[in-house]
Amino acid sequence: MEAAIVTIGDEILIGQITDTNSVWISQQLTSMGVHIYEMVSISDTGEHITGTLDRLIGKVDLVLMTGGLGPTKDDLTKEVLAQYFGANLVVNKEVLATIEEFFEKRGRTMIESNRRQALVPDNCRVLPNNHGTAPGMWFTRERTHIVSMPGVPYEMKPMLLEQLLPAMTDQMGIPALEHKTIMTHGVPESYLAEMIGDWEDGLPDCMKLAYLPRPGIVRLRLTATGLCTEKADQLLAEEIGALLKIIPEHIFGFDDIFLEEAIGKLLISKGLTLSTAESCTGGNIARLITSVPGSSSYFKGSIIAYSNEVKTENLDIGGAMIEKHGAVSREVVEAMVRGAIGKFRTDTAVATSGIAGPDGGTPDKPVGMVWIAVAWGDRVYSREFRFGGHRELIIEQASMMAIGLLRKMIAGVLAGEKN
Amino acid sequence: MEAAIVTIGDEILIGQITDTNSVWISQQLTSMGVHIYEMVSISDTGEHITGTLDRLIGKVDLVLMTGGLGPTKDDLTKEVLAQYFGANLVVNKEVLATIEEFFEKRGRTMIESNRRQALVPDNCRVLPNNHGTAPGMWFTRERTHIVSMPGVPYEMKPMLLEQLLPAMTDQMGIPALEHKTIMTHGVPESYLAEMIGDWEDGLPDCMKLAYLPRPGIVRLRLTATGLCTEKADQLLAEEIGALLKIIPEHIFGFDDIFLEEAIGKLLISKGLTLSTAESCTGGNIARLITSVPGSSSYFKGSIIAYSNEVKTENLDIGGAMIEKHGAVSREVVEAMVRGAIGKFRTDTAVATSGIAGPDGGTPDKPVGMVWIAVAWGDRVYSREFRFGGHRELIIEQASMMAIGLLRKMIAGVLAGEKN
Predict the structure, then answer these.
(1) C-beta atoms surrounding B166 within 10 Å
(2) Chain B positions in Cβ-Cβ contact with residue A366 (cut-off 8 Å)
(3) With an 8 Å Cβ cutoff, are A359 and B392 in contact?
(4) Do A210 and B11 touch (CB under 8 A)?
(5) Which chain B residues touch A179 with a CB distance below 8 Å?
(6) Nearest by CB to A286, which of B38, B304, B392?
(7) Which residues of B touch A38 (CB under 8 A)?
(8) Which of A2, B54, B160, B321 has the fewest Cβ atoms within 10 Å of its own Cβ atom?
(9) Nearest CA distance, A314 vs chain B (angstrom)
(10) In angstroms, rounded to a whole number, what is the distance separating the alpha carbons of residues A110 and A105?
């Protein structure tokens, strides 16, 4: 089954608000196995609305429209739909009663434009609005269902969940579709594609893989279509089992878990505590770690040592060491990570020292060069990286890499790491 | 001039990511006076891409496409465009050189799929990608310009701002329209609207004001249309001059300067240094401060004291004080800010202690309660706040408020602050 989502309203087109309705609707439909053919935002004009319907009717099974149903003059959608489907607008008594009750409850006076909201096309199924005044409308033409709903999220969402979806599963046959998202860290998209290329090529026809990169992270979305849930789950589990044998060390979790959540779970499961000593990441690692609810149970604190004197005074790093090797060096970053463990008395720690740019680079130590160290008790692992992009991206990649390396160390899969 | 924005990729259609590119592009184009006809998200298939182009070419002046240009097998856009525009794919030497340099800088080996990204249609204008490997492509057919750009925001945005928009203003006639954005901090949108309501009502007809809120910040975009640049600039300057008399203390800058940049400039101009002592903000203030290039000239370091023992041991806060008043209290946050100044020997400091949630709240000290202190030498100012929203939003608002209060203290406009 295929659906299109149509959003009506100028405030989206001019970039004043982000269309969060479409994402939410898409998530609901996708999880039911409905394939989203297209999402489109159009203006509230007769020509654009009817042109879009002409294009989509017969092409998809379901057109879900939101917006354009308000009481003001610039909301034309209902009139346009009535004309398009050859309907007359008639007062719907139940809708009128709902609107009257809505105003009575709030002690407000109804005006003519509110009363007009009780007018509905005489050939559609009406979906009552339990949280506002504009009802939903459900038309059918050829093989396509066309549903128009209000654009206000707290009116649209219950209408879709409580009324439309149950009616849909009754009326339309909906095929099964299952996904699983595999979260990887530490390998860029193109390398990953090469590492798992044979596995990907060997997937059965009913399965599809998508690469979804973020800084430092690649999400792999594996989809099985046209199978019963049981069979789909079984196939997904088999293929993921095979993938886990190919890149065990790079997979840190499933289904959109964040790396900072994954490390939190790992630390809790092992009863370990964490601290950080950050130079070029400037507190970003601590911020990521503490963005996770409950992180206070394993995260103790950080020292952000932006100046060399802070490194010397707070992390017991001899000034001579900095002078000899430079602040961006294996020696200093390892001393920093040991300093954090000592200072905060934690089981584990991460440390960074690098050049985030745009200034401060030299031929030997260019912008993007970052030393990262991770430690668990007496064990220390450190490595030099060269990250690309602008300052923000270098900080983000270094932060993710530091957390990722600590995860590998604790999970016992760091051995294969090249040093 | 009319434009359509086309986003390519399944991850948007299945609701896994929100399409933030379209909103951002729309804001850029709208502010130049370009009318957005439609925003549409489609799948990366030949049929859907060519069908969408068939529909939009001749209808709008500009089609801006993002996405579908990655190195992996599911990214078909370039091949589809080449075929659609009857082009051969040829190696572009400059693009190849950029890609080779990109890999060399990172010390990584290029593989075949990376090399393929240097192939471009032989009848398009190539837009170099200075932050990634996939170049942009600019085709023309009938009256329509068709531009394909990468979907990764930090690659697409500079390509649009630095290359496409300047070329567009040259090639296509774009009407006069001038803006100035006024950055305010510390007053919620609805209060601000009341404070400046009379001024807004008195604006001449050719000027329009838009409120653009972000956590902790409200941007005021003032637009003058249909005037020559000189006259527009003059009118904008006059109206902003009037606004500065109404809310002098809340305006921290212009034209999308970030609060963390504004404080950086202020610190540099006064020759002052800064440190932070953070509890509930978990390093986010330090991260914001150090996100600014050149911040190492005034930012010395931070202590993130997530546990009480870290506060006691590192910031000279007596355990008795924490026991008596609780960690979230005026006494402790003022001791923290003094501790930071002493420890890092800086001229100024900020400190936070609060409950970011979702757990840990009590009736007396609920989730969202945050004590913030700012200090300059011996002067200390502190205040309790109650922020709303989820954990991330509480941390963000507290961080912005801390930086904003320090700005007011240094700028000498803190006096009017209610305590």
Answers:
(1) 10
(2) 105
(3) no
(4) yes
(5) 14
(6) B304
(7) 13, 40-43, 48
(8) B54
(9) 9
(10) 12
The answer to whether residues B291 and B260 touch, using CB atoms and an 8 Å cutoff, is yes
Does B219 contact A at CB distance below 8 Å? no
Average pLDDT on B163-176 reads: 73
Q: Which residues of chain A have pLDDT under 70?
A: 72-74, 169-170, 172-177, 415-419
Chain A to chain B, count of Cβ pairs less than 8 Å apart? 242
The tally of CA atoms less than 13 A away on the side-chain side of residue A318 is 5
Q: Extract the runs of DSSP E, i.e. beta strands, from B186-272.
A: 207-214, 217-225, 251-254
pLDDT tens-digit profile of A79-116?
999 999 999 999 999 999 988 888 887 777 777 778 88
Which helix (H) or strand (E) is A180 found in, with range? strand A177-185
Q: Does A16 touch chain B (CB under 8 A)?
A: yes
Q: Which residues contact B45 (CB under 8 A, 6 or more apart)?
A: B76
Distance, in Å, from the CA atom of B55 to the CA atom of B169, rounded to the nearest integer, reads 25
Contacts of B302 in chain A (CB under 8 A): 283, 302-304
- Across the interface, whether the CB atoms of B10 and A289 are under 8 A apart is answered no
d(CA A2, CA A145) in angstroms, rounded, equals 11
A301 vs B: CB within 8 A: yes
Helix (H) or strand (E) run with residue A242 in it: helix A229-246
Please list every residue in chain B whose beta carbon sits closer than 8 Å to the beta carbon of residue A26: 13-15
> Could A300 and B284 be called an inter-chain contact, meaning their C-beta atoms sit closer than 8 Å?
no
* Per-residue pLDDT, A178: 76
* B304 with A305: Cβ contact below 8 A: no
Q: From the candidates B31, B45, B307, which should be mutated to test the interface with A, based on the most A CB atoms within 10 A?
A: B307
A72 inside 8 A of chain B by CB: no
A137-159: pLDDT as tens digits:
999 999 999 999 998 888 899 89
H/E stretch holding B172 reads none
d(Cα A148, Cα A25) in Å, to the nearest integer? 13
Residue B84, by phi and psi: left (phi above 0), alpha (psi -120 to 50) or beta?
A: alpha
Report the residue from A13, A210, A306 with minimal CB separation from B39: A13
Q: DSSP letter string over B89-142?
A: EEE-HHHHHHHHHHHHHTT----HHHHGGGEEETTSEEE--TTSSPPEEEEEET
pLDDT tens-digit series, residues B44-84 = 899 999 999 999 999 999 999 999 888 777 788 999 999 99
Spatial separation of the C-alpha atoms in residues A324 and B250, rounded to whole Å: 47
Burial class (CB in 10 A: 0-12, 13-18, 19+), A255: exposed
**pLDDT, tens digit, for every residue of A220-257?**
989 887 777 788 899 999 999 999 999 999 999 998 79
Contact call for residues A61 and A1 (beta carbons, < 8 A) = yes
CB contact under 8 A, A209 and B300: no
Q: Dihedral, CA atoms, A101, A104, A106, A112, nearest 10 degrees?
A: 90
| ipTM of the complex in this document | 0.73
pLDDT in tens, B252-305: 999 879 999 999 999 999 999 999 999 999 999 999 999 999 999 999 999 999
